[in-house]
């Protein structure tokens, strides 16, 4: 799976949009971009994923650049409960058993400030 | 909503004890995973299974074994617990091929004394 690069930490004011960047310059054509977050002492929570089109769900929006070398997760109105570590992961779509796992990097610690 | 349930949230065990961590998913997922998470080391895959009675080693299988007798249940076994196995253990599941989303349980905090 392609390697990702994220800033180690970011702050965001409550009520403002949080924009979390991720670089994945070696991404392959069949690799998805996934975002998870982990609130302290809990399991990772799935947020959103995409292949090449922008995606939106009730939690967030995912913007993927046209060349797919980077993406941005947008939390439109951040709340204090969005404080967490956010992980950007690229993952190949394959029927191979060994490809079914998920490899986490170190992520971005987002702190939402009151 | 997908639910992955880990049987114990917090456990304290003694060195040398046999430890069972149980995980159940309710979405008929084919794939199930066990990770451990340690500060500074991130999530590391221990074992995974893509079918009943099937298992594959992950990155750090030493000291662990797994059992998948039923599709919905995946057990992690520490045959003889050691202090370096103190960690948070995360179970996860997904459907089909690797393009499908993986869902995690809440985690089990194991302390070995």
Shape, principal axes of CA atoms of chain B: globular
Q: Which descriptor suits the 3D outline of chain A?
A: globular
Number of strands of chain A: 9
Oligomer: heterodimer
Secondary-structure element string of chain B: EEEEEEEEEEE
Mean residue pLDDT of chain B = 92
Count of beta strands of chain B: 11
Structural class by secondary-structure content of chain B: mainly beta
Mean pLDDT of chain A: 89
Are there runs of chain A of 5+ residues with pLDDT below 50, and where? none
Classify the beta-strand content of chain B into a percent band: over 45%
Main sheet record of chain A:
5 strands, mixed
Total of helices of chain A: 0
Question: What does this molecule look like?
Answer:
The complex is a heterodimer of chains A (114) and B (113). Chain A has 114 residues and is mostly beta strands. Chain A has no helices and nine strands. Chain A has a five-stranded mixed β-sheet, with no helix packed on it. A four-stranded antiparallel β-sheet of chain A has the order 2-7-6-5, with no helix packed on it. In chain A, a hairpin with a 5-residue loop joins strand 6 and strand 7. Chain A is globular and about 40 Å long. Chain B contains no helices and eleven strands. Chain B has 113 residues and is an all-beta fold. Helix content of chain B is 0%, strand content 52%. In chain B, strands 2, 4, 5, 6, 9, 10 and 11 form a seven-stranded mixed β-sheet that branches. A four-stranded antiparallel β-sheet of chain B has the order 1-3-8-7, with no helix packed on it. The radius of gyration of chain B is 13 Å and the shape is globular. At the A-B interface, strand 3 and strand 4 of A face strand 5, strand 9 and strand 10 of B.
At a glance:
The complex is a heterodimer of chains A (114) and B (113). Chain A is mostly beta strands and 114 residues long. Chain A contains no helices and nine strands.
Topology at a glance:
The complex is a heterodimer of chains A (114) and B (113).
Chain A (H helix, E strand, L loop, with lengths): L8 E5 L4 E6 L7 E8 L6 E6 L4 E2 L4 E4 L5 E6 L8 E9 L15 E6 L1
Parallel strand pairs in A: 1-9
Antiparallel strand pairs in A: 2-7, 3-4, 3-8, 5-6, 6-7, 8-9
Chain B lengths: L3 E3 L3 E4 L5 E7 L5 E8 L3 E8 L6 E2 L7 E6 L2 E6 L8 E8 L8 E2 L3 E5 L1
Parallel strand pairs in B: 2-11
Antiparallel strand pairs in B: 1-3, 3-8, 4-5, 4-9, 5-6, 7-8, 9-10, 9-11
């Amino acid at each position: 799976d392609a390697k990702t690069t994220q800033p180690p930490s970011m702050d965001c004011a409550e009520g403002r949009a949080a924009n979390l960047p991720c670089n994945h310059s070696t991404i392959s054509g069949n690799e998805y971009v996934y975002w998870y977050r982990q609130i302290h002492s809990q399991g990772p929570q799935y947020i959103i994923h995409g292949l090449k089109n922008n995606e939106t769900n009730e939690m967030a929006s995912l913007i993927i650049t046209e060349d797919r070398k980077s993406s941005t997760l947008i939390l439109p109105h951040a709340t204090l409960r969005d404080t967490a570590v956010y992980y950007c992961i690229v993952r190949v779509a394959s029927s191979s058993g060994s490809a079914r796992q998920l490899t986490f990097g170190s992520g971005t610690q987002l702190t939402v400030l009151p | 909503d997908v639910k992955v349930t880990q049987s114990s949230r917090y456990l304290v065990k003694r060195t040398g004890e046999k430890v069972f961590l149980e995980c159940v998913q309710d979405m008929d997922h084919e794939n199930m995973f066990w990770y451990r998470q340690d500060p500074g080391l991130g999530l590391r895959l221990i074992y995974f299974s893509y079918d009943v009675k099937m298992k594959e080693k992950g990155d750090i299988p030493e000291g662990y074994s797994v059992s998948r007798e039923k599709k919905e249940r995946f057990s992690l076994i520490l045959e003889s617990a050691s202090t370096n196995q103190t960690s948070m253990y995360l179970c996860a599941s997904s459907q089909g091929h690797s393009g499908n989303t993986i869902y995690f349980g809440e985690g089990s905090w194991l302390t070995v004394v």
